[in-house]
Amino acid sequence: MQIGLFSETHPLEEVLVWGEPGIESLLGQLLPKSKSLFFSYYDVQEARREFRHMQELIEAEGIRFTRAKDALAKSMEKAGLPDEPKNIRELERALLQRAGEYYEMFREHKIRDFSHEGIHGDIDEVYEQIKREIKTILDEDIRAYGEAGAIRLNHLLSLRHDLPLANIFYGRDQSQALTERVVLSVLKWGIRKPEVEIFKKALTELGYENGFVEIDRGSLEGGDVALLGDTCYIGVGARTTLSAVKNLCKKIGVEMEQRGIQIVAVVNKRHAEEAALHGAPTDEHMHLMHLDMFWIPLTPNLVMAYGHEVDQREVIRISRNSDSFVIEELGGFREFLSSKGIEMLEVDEQEQQNFATNLLNLGNQTVIVALSTNTRVIKELERRGFRVLSAELNKLVNGYGAVHCLTAPVRRTKK
After folding, report:
1. Is the full-model pTM beyond 0.90?
2. In this model, does residue 1 exceed pLDDT 70?
3. What is the domain extent for residue 40?
């Protein structure tokens, strides 16, 4: 399979996704917010329908839509897991038992989460709904992957690790295409850490293994990485660390420089310091966890950005000189963008929290936004000549991510 990504603004040819949220995400609804990394609750069946609508929008534009979940299922046809359930009934019992354990363990905590978030729901009713939907989604998985495939996938995603991999459907974070390579991430929080190895198996099945770059210092997540012009921007703060950016530079910095691309870290020092100390993310960290939560390229000289967060960020250029790093502090992010002739279309705090910047740029001045409620932003994009499609991800955004978080472009037309 061919990899080719040289700018976030080039026309999109192929996008990698995980697939719809599944039973693992249902189980995640029973975990405390501090463990699940979700808002307190969202309807998974509705989220699955939203994902399929997003897929339809992308495929209607002639873009190849590659699902890592399907590739993983194919790879697992060759060999199962030694401890997997013997049949579908045994799997269903194990899933229902795990749901019951989470319900008993975290019921009081979830009641507090609901109250804090202003959710007028009943965790007892949620639990009953989850039990019903486990059976419904399991039937859908059997139709999609066969009984053996459904057993292996759900055992791996929901039962085999300490926590269900409830966030895996945010398929950008686990890897990132850069030029003709695929950088495999190191995810920060425990519930997400196993996702990278699973994506690696899927990417290998898809034929991408010759392009892998593996990070072995710090943490780096795909939502923090963007190529625009002669610069690879990497957000450093709540999730990605400066040590990982240096490690990436060590691995492919010279290769990038030979292509005329510099690596810069876009650093929120306070968030980086807090994330190193806290045992769970704060609400502020969740809303600004990645670069794509507040900044996104639209054209070679135009970005959409939340100006307040841009002004909290400092730019550090990282390069190699023989066996050592060259670290250059280049000042504020806003000033850096201005020096490169890049204009900012600014969004306000409410628009940022409504995921205005977390869009998918299809190139050719076409974008898919998460929600049509950001009417001012949409009108401004249209005024500037953009064609705007809306995925209407009203449930999926309750995992603190939107269209950009769900999609990982692996090939864009090189101009």
Report:
1. yes
2. no
3. 21-49+68-159
